[in-house]
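Key result, reporting period 2: structure in, sequence out.
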């Protein structure tokens, strides 16, 4: 049974996707029992506050104790501030793409700006908080140097210190530790700083997913992002990269991801498009991730699936969605909580494609986290690199110490 808070969020998403008015569904909901403070927190976790505000604004529904007025006003405040910031971030994304393209660096927008432009009728309806760029590894060092020369800094002060004191730092970062992204930041006058996630891989090494970066490069096309044309991946690769993040890495643990998938399905209902997607998913080992997301889209948002997806989802079953619902109810990032981390791992391990080996996954996971790197929170103790098991358990103990007892 869904909590009244989660139900309101799902019904808001459903109304947004379908175009129905919220007042057509409110009468069947237990409005009186909603905890509005909890709902505000959940809407923030799911990154759907502009969507919920768009659905609820202008409603003349009378709730108890005036709570909804305060709730909607807070959503309005957040929606306005997010709109202004996201407009700035979209322009900054475009500027950086042009800057790097002028130096013959292959670079692509990822998630935020490109998804808002393609999927949402208005760019202020999708909530996003940072810039994302994907630069294939062979171009990544030159791209990072360009961004640092442009005024960006590493988001963590320890990383800036390592960069300034070690001439080989970028090589170690990009080629030794097996990481896939790093956070950068750039201050602005009279505004919040830009936060940039710089990706040179699409996921960590221990995940089984594979997307050929050369295919992304060769399939790229021109697209008007804001004011100018920039190079972006093909729509199929934009979808595949999004699927890897939303379903592969994050296991559909936020309603924003389900909304994005719903809008892809509504925008591209043709079976031929999804035949190409299914073929790409087979190669990328993301087919079951796609089907799990499609099951959620159909069950919770009532979105009609293209026939080719419908036939495959029918046999998929409902058991894999139980932990997704738990994560939606808990509304805690799996990076921030031990219990959320366990739920994430259950979802992740239960919806991998054929020939996936949990044993190999855990071995690679241990090897990955056994290597300390300059981007992470300092460990309670670091051992010599050859002591992989000791370093891994030091990472686990540090994580439990920092997160588990909060």
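The corresponding designed sequence is given below.
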């Amino acid at each position: 049974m869904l909590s009244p808070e989660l139900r309101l969020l799902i019904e808001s998403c459903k109304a947004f996707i379908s175009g129905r008015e919220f007042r057509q569904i409110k009468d069947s909901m237990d409005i009186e029992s909603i905890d509005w403070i909890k709902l505000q927190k959940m809407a923030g976790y799911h990154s759907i506050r502009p969507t919920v505000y768009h659905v609820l604004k202008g409603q003349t529904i009378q709730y108890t104790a005036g709570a909804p007025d305060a709730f909607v006003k807070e959503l309005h405040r957040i929606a306005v501030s997010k709109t202004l910031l996201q407009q700035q971030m979209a322009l900054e994304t475009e500027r950086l793409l042009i800057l790097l393209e002028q130096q013959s660096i292959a670079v692509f927008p990822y998630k935020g700006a490109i998804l808002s432009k393609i999927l949402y009728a208005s760019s202020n309806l999708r909530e996003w908080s940072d810039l994302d760029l994907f630069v294939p590894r062979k171009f990544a060092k030159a791209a990072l140097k360009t961004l640092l020369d442009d005024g960006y800094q590493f988001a963590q002060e320890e990383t800036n210190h390592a960069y300034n004191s070690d001439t080989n730092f970028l090589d170690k970062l990009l080629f030794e530790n097996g990481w896939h992204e790093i956070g950068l930041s750039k201050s602005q006058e009279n505004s919040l700083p830009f936060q940039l996630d710089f990706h040179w891989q699409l996921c960590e090494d221990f995940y089984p997913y594979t997307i050929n970066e050369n295919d992304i490069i060769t399939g790229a096309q021109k697209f008007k992002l804001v004011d100018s044309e920039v190079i972006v991946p093909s729509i199929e690769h934009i979808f595949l990269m999004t699927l890897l993040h939303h379903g592969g890495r994050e296991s559909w643990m936020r309603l924003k991801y389900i909304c994005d998938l719903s809008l892809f399905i509504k925008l591209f209902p043709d079976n031929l498009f999804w035949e190409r997607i299914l073929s790409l998913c087979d190669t990328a080992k993301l087919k079951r991730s796609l089907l799990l997301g499609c099951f959620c889209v159909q069950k919770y948002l009532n979105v009609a699936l293209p026939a080719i997806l419908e036939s495959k989802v029918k046999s998929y079953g409902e058991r894999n969605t139980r932990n997704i619902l738990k994560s939606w109810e808990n509304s805690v990032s799996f990076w921030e909580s031990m219990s959320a981390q366990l739920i994430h791992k259950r979802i992740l391990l239960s919806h991998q494609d054929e020939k996936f080996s949990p044993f190999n996954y855990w071995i690679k996971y241990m090897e990955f986290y056994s290597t300390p790197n300059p981007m992470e929170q300092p460990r309670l103790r670091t051992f010599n690199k050859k002591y992989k098991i000791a370093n891994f358990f030091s990472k686990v103990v540090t994580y439990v110490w920092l997160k588990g007892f909060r």
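Residues 4-343 form a domain with the Beta Polymerase; domain 2 fold (CATH 3.30.460.40). The chain has one domain: 4-343. This case is discussed further under Risks and Mitigation.
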